[in-house]
Fold these 2 entries.
Entry 1:
Amino acid sequence: MAVDTFPPIICTVDVVLLTLHDDALHVVLHLRDREPFLGMPALPGGYVHQQEDRDAEDAAVRVLRDKTGIASPYLEQLATLSGPARDPRGWSISVAYYALVPRQLLPVDAAQLRLMPADRLPALPFDHRRIVELAVSRVRVKSHYSSLPVHLCGERFTLPQLQSVYEAVLGEPVNKVSFRRKMDELAMLEPIDGELELGRANRPAQLYRVRREFRRTLSLLERGLGS
Amino acid sequence: MAVDTFPPIICTVDVVLLTLHDDALHVVLHLRDREPFLGMPALPGGYVHQQEDRDAEDAAVRVLRDKTGIASPYLEQLATLSGPARDPRGWSISVAYYALVPRQLLPVDAAQLRLMPADRLPALPFDHRRIVELAVSRVRVKSHYSSLPVHLCGERFTLPQLQSVYEAVLGEPVNKVSFRRKMDELAMLEPIDGELELGRANRPAQLYRVRREFRRTLSLLERGLGS
């Protein structure tokens, strides 16, 4: 190889798939099925396939589906990491995404998947620990002023259940009155006619779902929760 | 070429260099010196050079310096754009950055540069218009809760001058009392001993500068301006 000839830059995507388990953010890791780092738990990731991917996000959706069986939850670009040292195969660019999924949509018996608490991760290959940290930080910040946490909820939930999800993501209690006002302002929920669930002390609580137009996107607050 | 062989993915960086001119955000465009789009104004951009760049940000700093003469102002990753159609040369990934620079640091007589209002752009090649829109939106949102606009100021400024810069970026007036409280909270300014400037009605106004630790980074507000 001539001194001024270099192999192509490696172009990949990585996805931080987050869910809520035991009231804490967890990351879905995939046991690597090839070198480098064969057998290690890692973020679901893979090469961009220019013959089939319309863009990097399309590649992320494909990789997530192929490696975890999860189709199109909420998914957003997080950051792009690059350099000569992050991948032992050579100079690489990885476009990282994060995705949220309700716990009940995760496959229960997938031998190649591991569910790990986001704040107690095992050793991860590449710069995957850094990517998870970026994702958790982004999700926390964004949850203060948006409907993001609803993407961790199942299809139907009560307001107290939704508040618990927000509190688990934010890592702090939320004032109930202020929370309900902010949910009104987000205007992303609709009550399910006639559907009630027995809540605390057997008092029936209204069930809600996310309005269709916000099922794959976000509603934003003018000012954050707590203000 | 065999049907399953593809040329390497094109890896580039693009930089949205923003400044304040006539109280409005402007973009510094560079007249392209090669095909495609030879001679058109475009974002300063170029290939990632794996032999010399430590990462994509390093490439962005290099490209900005080589094409505009601007060295290391505030620079932050914005988004990564990708796909088969955005660059006529083939499937490409561009890591986009935005940078802020005080007007007075721009070269005054650079024949290859054009200063254009961010909201009245000429036709731009590639998806550069979209990248500028993303950058302007990011800067506006971030200016609500951070020290970002100081990177548009010169080395010394009065508080009324800084408030004008915030107002120009946000596109709305800011309450003076609340603004001063927020600047105190950001704790990023220090008065310059004995340096005053004659302000309105010839009343002397204190000159400030950004504290050393915030000259290349941000200080963040707990709650945004206006709350």
Note: Chain A has two domains: 10-143, 148-214.
Entry 2:
Amino acid sequence: MIAVTILGNNSAVPAFDRHPTSQLITINGTTILVDCGEGTQIQMMRYKIRRAKISHIFISHLHGDHYFGLVGLISSLGLLNHLQELHVFGPSPLQEIIELQLKLSNTILPFQLYFHTIVKEGLLLVGSNYEVSCFNTNHRIECYGFVFCEKKKNRKLNLEKIKEFEIPTSFYKKLEEGIDYTTKDNRLIKNSDVTFPPTKGKTYAYCADTKYDEAIIPFVHGADMIYHETTYLDNLKERAELRFHSTSKQAAWIAKKACVKKLLIGHFSSKYAELDEFEKECKEVFENTAIAQEGVSYYV
Amino acid sequence: MIAVTILGNNSAVPAFDRHPTSQLITINGTTILVDCGEGTQIQMMRYKIRRAKISHIFISHLHGDHYFGLVGLISSLGLLNHLQELHVFGPSPLQEIIELQLKLSNTILPFQLYFHTIVKEGLLLVGSNYEVSCFNTNHRIECYGFVFCEKKKNRKLNLEKIKEFEIPTSFYKKLEEGIDYTTKDNRLIKNSDVTFPPTKGKTYAYCADTKYDEAIIPFVHGADMIYHETTYLDNLKERAELRFHSTSKQAAWIAKKACVKKLLIGHFSSKYAELDEFEKECKEVFENTAIAQEGVSYYV
């Protein structure tokens, strides 16, 4: 299961009690932060999320509304005597910016902080039961989207067959791991004869900031849920194009063309006090759309 | 009149809906921000304070809880198309940190941003009706306190004498400016014979982060109000000493010895959920003490 908790759903300037971009992703027990606008740690406190749970942070690009909260979060983890190692992935020179500020404040972190500079699209992280890869989006500066996939390793038991071959329950776990069974009279029962392949893991794709660009479709195709920015309503298509952002309907078209199951929308311009129209416009193109509401968790 | 509005009253880590240090100072029509911890601009929105009013920002030192919100605030002013020039005063290399981040995000500000690197104590800024000076505090890294003084230029009219010399009301403004009056029959009336000297301007001193150090007393002596940090209650005097911070009673002793009129206390450690005890302990030494409450304005 993947859970996506929205910490900030606004674009550049905080407004209407909406905050700059940040999302918390829980994937098979691992807690990952995606983007970290100013005030992210304060939002986490508001929603009673323990900062110390985070082991990985992915920063899509170096516009301030996506990373100005990072150095504060890292500093706080240090002051809270966090000990678990922390891995930060982002474009160059994120590492330089963060390390400069930590150095100037004489901060010595009590945990290992690893920076991983993203240089091109592809696989970024392989966990025991999940993977994270990235793809280029079409924005004003170097910018990456991220795809989070569950890895399902366990095969499913075919209970009918298992009973037929009289395999003891103590061997079930090994069957799930793909191991063959040998009977007492030395007959080999091939694993594939008594199990089904693993179910497909869930996939969530975060499309970061981007103008409308169908080039991202292959990377998010068939995802269970994608987040796509909708900075503007559809009547401001030209402004969106000019500023390398997307409109409501453009996000919905990406969702539709990529055959995803669900669309989350966010990164709303501060010019909009109300958001209902975004959902309405998207649903004209792609029905299963939801506004990424701050403090709400969306499950895949 | 000087008004001090508290935007953040907590120490390093935000907690209990208390935020890192920031104060807004309004002095004779000029709006000044002192320190700018993460989330300061969000606090301003919460308390309906227009970010665009700020013309000067003073940063006491480069611990993150005093400046991590600065680059976000500057970026937002740019995005909001703020046009008034902005002056930032702080220790080196604040300018380098901010400029690096603006450069990396391709930010071109629509207003002039001037950095003034503080290198030693003394006068920093002379406005038409106020002055700002700074003094060294005793902290783990280079750190400055700030003194904000009203300049009262206008002399007070001595109405009794003015009537006696039959000076017309149209000349009152010039009398306030210190100009002598010449009667119709060419008699010189000396200004000092018909006016009193200007009243003394109000003074507010912000003592930043500091351990207990009587060396700051001469700089804040006789102030109408001072803000002094009280990171810990008095039973943690040793921890305060070790971390270059102060306790409740230490702040109160500085206020008492400096003969100030009022003491504001803040920069509370995140270990304290309740703050009443801080006020109680201070008042045992210095009666006119108030907790710097977020969202509240204190008038001098």
Note: The CA atoms of residues 151 and 216 of chain A lie 22 Å apart.
